[in-house]
Design goal:
Elements lengths: L2 E4 L4 H13 L6 E7 L1 H4 L8 H21 L6 E6 L6 H12 L3 E6 L4 H6 L3 H8 L4 E5 L1
Helix pairs in contact: 4-6
């Protein structure tokens, strides 16, 4: 089974990655996607231009993702990708899943309770709404 797992560095994403590894154990391909939104993720980076800030962010994340994935055997493919202008993270995840022809997308979700959980416009909720692929939500 070919699997795409969305990563964001959180504990929940680690749990989603462990689950995705189990899904792909029997010969399937596994790719870990870290989608970045420069307007949000590069806000704390001091650089001469937006492109420079994104390059610094991409380098940081790529290194961290590769280090994490190196501990998994066989090593999954790591993808650090910038969302396109006007695109949200869930759309980016679905776009990559479609382009790669994966069988399933794995993503983590925080345990939000009550009305707070219903009111969240989370990436997970949006992905469930728009995805053309089966989505497995791992509770963190």
């Amino acid at each position: 089974m070919d699997v795409l797992v969305a990563c964001d560095g959180s504990d929940g994403a680690e749990e989603a990655l462990r689950f995705a590894v189990r899904l792909s154990e029997h010969g399937g391909a596994l790719a870990a996607l870290f989608a970045i939104n420069p307007l949000v993720d590069a806000v704390d980076i001091v650089a001469p231009s937006r492109d420079s800030a994104v390059a610094i962010l991409r380098e940081r994340l790529d290194g961290a993702l590769r280090a994490r994935l190196a501990a998994i055997s066989p090593t999954p493919e790591g993808i650090v990708l910038e969302v396109e202008r006007g695109e949200d993270i869930a759309e980016c995840i679905d776009r990559i899943a479609t382009a790669r022809g994966v069988d399933v997308v794995v993503i983590a979700s925080r345990r939000a309770a009550g009305l707070h959980g219903l009111a969240l416009g989370s990436v997970t909720q949006e992905l469930l709404r728009i995805s053309r692929h089966p989505v497995v939500v791992v509770r963190a």
